[in-house]
Amino acid sequence: MLREPLLTISDLTKDYPAVRAVDHLSLTINRGEVHGIIGENGAGKSTLMKMLSGLERPTTGSITFAGRPLHLRTAADAMRAGIAMIHQELNLIGELSVADNIFLGRERTTAGLVDHGATETAALKLLNQLGSSIPPRTRVKRLSIAEAQLVEVAKALSCEARLLIMDEPTAVLSERETVALFRVMNQLRLQGVTIIYISHILPEVRKLCDRITVLRDGKFVQTVEPREASESDLAKLMVGRDLGDLYPKRGVHRSEKVLEVRNVFVEGFVRGAGLDLHRGEIVGLAGLVGSGRTEFAEAIAGLRRRRSGSVSVKGAPVRLRHPLDAVRCGLAYLSEDRKERGLHLDLSVVENSTLANLRAYGRILLRRRARIKAAQSHAARLGTRLRHVGQRVASLSGGNQQKVALAKWLDTRPEILLLDEPTRGVDIGAKQEIYQLIHALAAEGRAILLISSEMPELLGLCHRILVMRQGRIVGALAGERATEGDIMHLAAGLRESRVA
Amino acid sequence: MIQDKANTPAAARFHWSDFFETWGGLMALVGLAAFCALFPGTREHFLNPENIRNIIHQNAFIGIIAVGMTFVIISGGIDLSVGSMAALIGGLSILAMNKVIGLTETPVGVYPPIKYLIGANLSEGLGVVCACAVAPPIGIALGLLNGVLITKGRIAPFIVTLGGFAGYRSIILAIADGGEVRSSSFNLFEAMSSPRHGIPLPGYQAGERLVELNITWPIVVFLLIAIAAQIALSHTRFGRYVIAVGSNETAARYSAISVDRVRIIAYALIGLCTGIAALLLASRLNSVGASNTGNLFELDAIAAVVIGGTRLSGGRGRIWGTVCGVLILGMIDNMLLLAEVSAYWQGLVKAGVILLAVLLQRSRAL
Q: Is B209 in the A-facing interface, judged by CB distances under 8 Å?
C-alpha cells in the first residue's frame, strides 16, 4: 500500500489550566490504514480525538489533513472536512428510522418535503456497501448495539468521511459481532477509508491494525507494527514499567461451601441454572453475550424476579426477593453497567462508597467522619486515584470509577461477591490492580463469582470456569487446564460437557 | 492519595456557575434585601422589624409546604396537589373541631352532661386539640395515597398529583357547598397563627410608640421544620437515599435501596407538611374558603424550591435554599406593595426572578 500521509499532527499541545493533557505530540496517519491508538486512561487519547473532531481546540501545534491545514471550531467543521467520529455512546435517535438517522440534518427533499423513498434507497445502498441487511425503515431503538454501530458508520460514509475515528467500538459487542465489525472495517480499508481505532483490548488492536501508536501521559511513545510487538510489549509501552505477571498466582480454596444455587429460572433468560461457591474460591462464569450470565447473577442477588430456584448461604436456605435481602446475607453484586447501574456519577466518592451500607453509620444520624474515613480507607486499599473523597465520581477515570463501585460493595463486608465484568472499560494498570484485589479477597476467605467475556482473565484467575449458554450451565472446566478453545466450544454449543 | 493529573482540569477551574449554584439563593436574598433597604420607594418601611416579621409570617405557610416539596423534587418527583390538599385538610380539621365543640358545648350531643362538666373554654380547647390531632394524619394519609399510586401504580407523579389537584379541591367544594367552612371557635383557634401571639421579642421604641413584637407560631413551626428537614436531608439515611434515588433510580435499586419506599415516604412527608400548613392556614382566617384557600400554593412552593437551587429533575438540592426562595418570593410581594406598584405586576416580577435564578444556577454539566 502506498504510504501517503492523510493526517499529520505536529507538535500538538493541549493545556488545561491545571494539566497538560496532550504534550508536544507528533503523529502521522497514512491514507487507507487502520491506525490503532492505545494508552492508559489519562494518556491523552480522548483529548486528541476531541481536537480531531472539533470538540476542543489545540493550545499550540498544527494538524494537516489531506495536505491542508485543519482549523476546526465545531464538530460540524470536522464533518465537512471529512472526519467522522463514532463515539462509544452512539448518537442516534431511537424513534426515527435507520434511513432518517443516516440522513439526519441532511434530509433528501423534493419540493421542500422529505422524500422518504429517495432517503431509503440511499440508505439501503450504504448499508449494502457495509454488508448489512438492516431494513432502512426499522426504527433504531429496535436494533442491537452492533447494528446501531453500523448505522453510525453508514452515517459517516454518507457524509463522505475520509477519516473515521472509532472509540472502543467493541467494548459493547459480543464476540460474533466484533468479528462482523472487523469485516466491515477491513472492507472500508479496501475502499480507501482511513480509520483511527482506539481500544483497550490489545489482541484486537494487534489483529486489526496496520500500525499502532502508544500514548502515555499525553506524549507520543512509539508507533509500531503489530508483528514487531507482542501484547506484553504493548502493555509495557502503555504503562511505562514492567507489568510482571498480569495474574497473581492462584491460591488454594477451602472446601466449606458458602453458596449453593439450584435450578434458577428467569423468564426469557435463565433456564435452570445452578452453581456452588466455596470459601476462598474464584469461579469464572463464561458465555457469549445473551447467554443469561448477568440475569442469572442478578436473580441470585435479588434484583430480578425468579420463577423458581433456591439459594442457600452457608447451608441455610435464604429468600432473596429484594437486593437488601442479598446484602444482609453477605452477598454483593457488582453490575457490569457501571455508569447506569453501578454508580451515582453525580454524587461524591464518599456518598457512593458508603451508599449500600449506610445502616452501619448510625441509627438515625449518620456519622460523617466515619463515612469519610471508610471511603478513604477503601480508596487507599484499592489504590483509587482521586484528589479528595468529596470529588464527584463522574470526574474520575473508568478504572477509578470501577474501584469506587467495588468499594461500595466491599463496604458491606460481603462473604460472597458476584463480579460482573469487573474490568470492562478499565485500563491495563487498573486491571492488574483489580486482579490483585480479587485474589486478595479470595485469600481472605471470600467466595467470588467472576463473570467475564475476557477469556484470558478467566483462565488466569479462576479455580473453576462455568460456561453458560442459552440460560443453562453447559460445562465446568478446571481453571488451570482449560484453554480458550475449550470455553469457546462450550459457549458456542459445539460440544456438550458434564454439567457442574 | 496520588494526584490524578487527568482529572484535575475540569474540577480545579473556578466557575462562576459553580459559585452561583451554591450561593446564588442566599446572594439573591441578601441582594434583594439590600435593594429594598436602599430603594427610595421602599426603604422607609422595609427594614422595620415588624415588616420583616410580617414577611416571614405571611410566607411561613407556603414555606412549610415548600420544605416538603424540596424532598419530593430531589427524589425526582413533583407534587401539584398540595394547594387543594391544604384546603381539604383545613376544611376537614375545622369540621372536626366544630364537631367536638358542638358535642361538648350544646345539649344536642350524645352526652349532654359533658357541657356541665366542662366549661366553654375547655370545650373550645378540646376542639382545637382535635383539629391539631386530625390535620397531620390526614396529610400523611393523602401523601401516602399519592406515593403509592406513583410507585406501585406506576403512574407519573405529574399525573397522579394533577388528579389530586382537581380531586381534593372538588371534595372541599362539595363539602362547603362552594362557600367556606367556618370555625365555631371564638378566638382560641385563631390564636395559633395570630400575629399577636407567639414568642415575645424585647420591645423597642418607634417614635412615640412602644412596639412589642412576637415571633408567631407559624414562624416557629416553619423554622423548626426547616431545620429538622435540613438535618434529615444531609445527615440521615433517608435523606441520602432521597438524593440517590433522584440522581439515578436504577443505580439506587442496584445499591440495595428500597426505591419505592423512599419515594412513598417523600410524598408522605410533603403530606405531613401540607397538613401542618393547612391547620395554621385555617386558623389564620378562622375559616377555609373552598375555592380560594391554598390556591396556586403548589406553584409558589415549586418556584421557591427552584429558586433555592434544587434541581427540578432531582438528585440535588437543599432545604436552606428553599427557605431563601420562600423569603425571596415574599420580599418581592412586599417590595411591590411598599413601592405602591399594582398587584397585577407581581406575577411578572416573580417570573423574572425565577428565570434569573435558574439561569444563574444552571449547572455546567448541562
A: no
